[in-house]
Amino acid sequence: MQTGPAISHDPALFADIVDATHDAIVVIDDHGIVQFANRATELIFGYSPAELVGQSVNLLMRPEEAAGHDRHLRTADPDIRQRIIGRGRQLTGRRRDGTPVPIDLVVSMLTRSDDVRLYIGTIRDLSDRRLAEESLRLSFESTGVGQAVVGLDGRMLRVNLALARSLGREAAALAGADFRSLIHPDDLAAAERWLAAARVDGRPLDG
């Protein structure tokens, strides 16, 4: 690892940097035993680093996911590792009090000079994001203004109740329909320009 002199001459500073990150970092060995955890781990899961080190990482998982994790460690299947290593996955973790916590997990693998493998999990708490998504969903569904989520191909991915009622249709029946089929011929050219602009630069467009 390349570091500047400010860090290479002060190893404790590097540890402080790891502890200052908002994402949890948990390092386990081939047996699933925690070898390191940073301070953010406690903020997400409720266990201090000192409590986690030496314990099974299964403490942070729901029982059904812990069983699958144990199988992966036992088999050490390279195909499974390839599907997991370096890929973000959205899972449900388990806090100390047993409550679920939505997380994004990215696993990296490190092989030490003595051939011991370590797995480094970087974990982000998705609770705030999920709350924001739910708030947006409720707003979308409850507003009295007709709204639709439209894909770049012009097909409606989601339609709210207000729009469905104004058209005298079921929301489920409208999903997948081309929104241009609902546009008055006089407004179709403007709708095509709106869709073309979205395809070019992906900027959010109202309409």
From TrEMBL:
InterPro entries according to UniProt: Biofilm_reg_signaling (IPR052155), PAS (IPR000014), PAS-assoc_C (IPR000700), PAS-like_dom_sf (IPR035965), PAS_fold (IPR013767)
Claim: Lyase is one of the keywords in the record: no
Protein keywords: Kinase, Transferase
PANTHER family per UniProt: BIOFILM ARCHITECTURE MAINTENANCE PROTEIN MBAA, DIGUANYLATE CYCLASE DGCP
Classification via SMART domains: PAS (SM00091)
The organism's taxonomic lineage, starting at the top: Bacteria, Pseudomonadati, Pseudomonadota, Alphaproteobacteria, Geminicoccales
NCBIfam families: sensory_box
Keyword Disulfide bond: no
An example molecular function term from Gene Ontology annotations: kinase activity
BP GO terms, sorted: regulation of DNA-templated transcription
PAC domain boundaries: 87-138
Top-rank taxon: Bacteria
Protein name, as recorded: PAS domain-containing sensor histidine kinase
Domain PAS: 10-65, 132-202
Organism: Tistrella mobilis
